[in-house]
């Protein structure tokens, strides 16, 4: 065992030890070849994946998994900071100090002289104003400047729409959005009739963008709503496959009409499960 290894094992547990581990992994001569080869671009997908795994642990209510996933996400920050330090851009300490100062600046009602006696809605407004001032200091003068390109498409669409709404570019009520939704669906139908792939592609995007707008006006987070629908579809299809397997069949063996009957059974089973859960919660209460 090398002396460098000894230092790692002797370093007290905590962030400093994690930093030392990261530095050791990135050592060009004695580190891990895979870690040494990575760049900001190659690591970015893992960073996004870890963030979603944090959300998954939260949705499952599994605190043990959440602890582990938060560690994985923290490691991503340490990884990026280490690569930045190697090229002289910034250090992990800069990252920590930066977010600390940002949180202090964005909470004058906690760390400053502003009154804490205001609604959560007003605090959101104040938060947005402070973020706008930060964007101005970075010469981001456009209303849509600073909305990250790497966000999931539904989330980015919602953020773009919210930014535009702040400067008055928005439907006054939901009726305009529903009319726009019908219009976009009609335009997609026209594009299909023309059999123009590029136009179909564009109209599908416009339709999805309008659906996000509708969700925003209804106070629904589009990303979370679609994720819930994905889970619902997954659970129902799994029920369908299990039921068919018990009968010695698979989805490929049945007609669409026969599959639809099993699908309806899956929906009923889901409704029964939710009803039983509600009854159980009421009994406990």
Automatic annotation (TrEMBL):
<dbReference type="GO" id="GO:0006950">
    <property type="term" value="P:response to stress"/>
</dbReference>
<dbReference type="GO" id="GO:0046076">
    <property type="term" value="P:dTTP catabolic process"/>
</dbReference>
<dbReference type="InterPro" id="IPR048015">
    <property type="entry name" value="NTP-PPase_MazG-like_N"/>
</dbReference>
<feature type="domain" description="NTP pyrophosphohydrolase MazG-like">
    <location>
        <begin position="38"/>
        <end position="111"/>
    </location>
</feature>
<keyword id="KW-0378">Hydrolase</keyword>
<dbReference type="GO" id="GO:0046047">
    <property type="term" value="P:TTP catabolic process"/>
</dbReference>
<dbReference type="GO" id="GO:0046061">
    <property type="term" value="P:dATP catabolic process"/>
</dbReference>
<comment type="similarity">
    <text>Belongs to the nucleoside triphosphate pyrophosphohydrolase family.</text>
</comment>
<dbReference type="InterPro" id="IPR011551">
    <property type="entry name" value="NTP_PyrPHydrolase_MazG"/>
</dbReference>
<dbReference type="GO" id="GO:0047693">
    <property type="term" value="F:ATP diphosphatase activity"/>
</dbReference>
<dbReference type="InterPro" id="IPR004518">
    <property type="entry name" value="MazG-like_dom"/>
</dbReference>
<dbReference type="GO" id="GO:0006203">
    <property type="term" value="P:dGTP catabolic process"/>
</dbReference>
<protein>
    <recommendedName>
        <fullName>Nucleoside triphosphate pyrophosphohydrolase</fullName>
        <ecNumber>3.6.1.8</ecNumber>
    </recommendedName>
</protein>
<dbReference type="GO" id="GO:0046081">
    <property type="term" value="P:dUTP catabolic process"/>
</dbReference>
<dbReference type="InterPro" id="IPR048011">
    <property type="entry name" value="NTP-PPase_MazG-like_C"/>
</dbReference>
<dbReference type="GO" id="GO:0046052">
    <property type="term" value="P:UTP catabolic process"/>
</dbReference>
<dbReference type="Pfam" id="PF03819">
    <property type="entry name" value="MazG"/>
</dbReference>
<feature type="domain" description="NTP pyrophosphohydrolase MazG-like">
    <location>
        <begin position="178"/>
        <end position="236"/>
    </location>
</feature>
């Amino acid at each position: 065992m090398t002396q460098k290894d000894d230092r790692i094992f002797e370093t007290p547990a905590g962030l400093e030890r994690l930093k030392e581990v990261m530095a050791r992994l990135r050592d060009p001569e004695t580190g891990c070849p895979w870690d040494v080869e990575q760049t900001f671009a190659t690591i970015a997908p893992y960073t996004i994946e870890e963030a979603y795994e944090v959300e998954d642990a939260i949705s499952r209510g599994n605190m043990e998994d959440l602890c582990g996933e938060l560690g994985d996400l923290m490691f991503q920050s340490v990884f990026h900071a280490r690569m930045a330090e190697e090229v002289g851009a910034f250090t992990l300490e800069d990252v920590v100090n930066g977010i600390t100062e940002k949180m202090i600046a964005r909470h004058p009602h906690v760390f400053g002289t502003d009154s804490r006696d205001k609604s959560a809605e007003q605090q959101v407004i104040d938060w947005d104003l402070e973020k706008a001032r930060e964007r101005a200091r970075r010469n981001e003068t456009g209303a849509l400047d600073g909305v990250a390109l790497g966000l999931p498409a539904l989330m980015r669409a919602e953020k773009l729409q919210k930014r535009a709404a702040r400067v008055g570019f928005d439907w006054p009520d939901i009726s305009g959005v529903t009319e726009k939704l019908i219009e976009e669906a009609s335009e997609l139908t026209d594009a299909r009739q023309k059999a123009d792939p590029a136009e179909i592609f564009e109209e599908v995007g416009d339709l999805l963008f309008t659906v996000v707008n509708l969700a925003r006006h209804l106070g629904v987070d589009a990303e979370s709503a679609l994720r819930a629908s994905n889970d619902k579809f997954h659970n129902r299809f799994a029920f369908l496959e299990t039921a068919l397997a018990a009968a010695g069949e698979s989805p490929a063996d049945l007609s669409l009409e026969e599959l639809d009957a099993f699908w309806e059974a899956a929906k009923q089973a889901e409704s029964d499960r939710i009803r039983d859960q509600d009854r159980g919660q009421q009994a406990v209460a």
